[in-house]
Design goal:
13 helices; 213 residues
């Protein structure tokens, strides 16, 4: 196998290592042989779930990739895939496994808040999005969270708070989405107490799954 590998006959090397149950060596050789399917299988057999997940992503086998990342306790990666597959129950379950000391916690709380908003759980959404902001002023990274929180307040009838948050957004980016118009509506709704329809437009948020690697 080593001689085949040195001579760049990676397929034959991979087959021999596979027969010898040298799964990691076989998997890497299968990658060199441009056989990601077998590479994924052998990475799974070796317990290298992250590498297996990456192979399945390249094969566009998203559910398998998510399962592998879940097995690796890479909950954020798995959740992002399930979210793009619109499997929201699994997404929520995985996001809630991410603890505060995890570097992905801020991203996880933001995505949870967005999902709760999409499911019309406006108070839950507001709680998680506020947690993701962590009292930071409006900036490029959290402006979307502020935008959704403001609309949550409108849905809950707290138009004064909605206007206050829209003002924070406008002070940072006066042309952000349709905030100026929404502020005017919220001011009017504050006076007339009209019911609010969902205004959140998610166009352009769904990412290419291949870029989740």
């Amino acid at each position: 196998a080593e001689l085949y590998y040195k001579n760049e006959d990676f397929g034959k090397a991979a087959i021999i290592w596979s027969e010898l149950k040298e799964n990691t060596l076989a998997a890497n050789a299968f990658i060199k042989a441009n056989d990601p399917e077998q590479a994924a299988i052998h990475f799974e057999n070796s317990g290298n779930w992250n590498k297996a997940g990456e192979c399945y992503l390249n094969l566009l086998k998203y559910s398998k990739a998510a399962d592998c990342f879940n097995s690796a306790n890479n909950f954020m990666q798995a959740a992002n895939i399930y979210y793009n597959l619109r499997d929201l129950d699994r997404t929520i379950n995985l996001l809630q496994k991410i603890e505060k000391n995890n570097p992905d916690y801020k991203q996880a709380t933001f995505l949870l808040g967005k999902i709760f908003y999409q499911q019309n759980f406006f108070n839950l959404s507001k709680i998680k999005l506020a947690e993701s902001i962590s009292d930071e002023p409006v900036n490029a990274d959290n402006i979307e969270a502020y935008y959704i929180i403001a609309d949550c307040h409108s849905h809950m009838g707290d138009f004064a708070e909605s206007v206050r948050i829209y003002d924070q957004i406008l002070s940072y980016d006066f042309s952000y989405r349709d905030v100026l118009q929404l502020r005017e509506i919220a001011v009017k709704d504050k006076t007339e107490l009209k019911p609010v329809e969902s205004r959140y437009n998610e166009t352009g948020i769904i990412r290419d799954l291949l870029q989740l690697q």
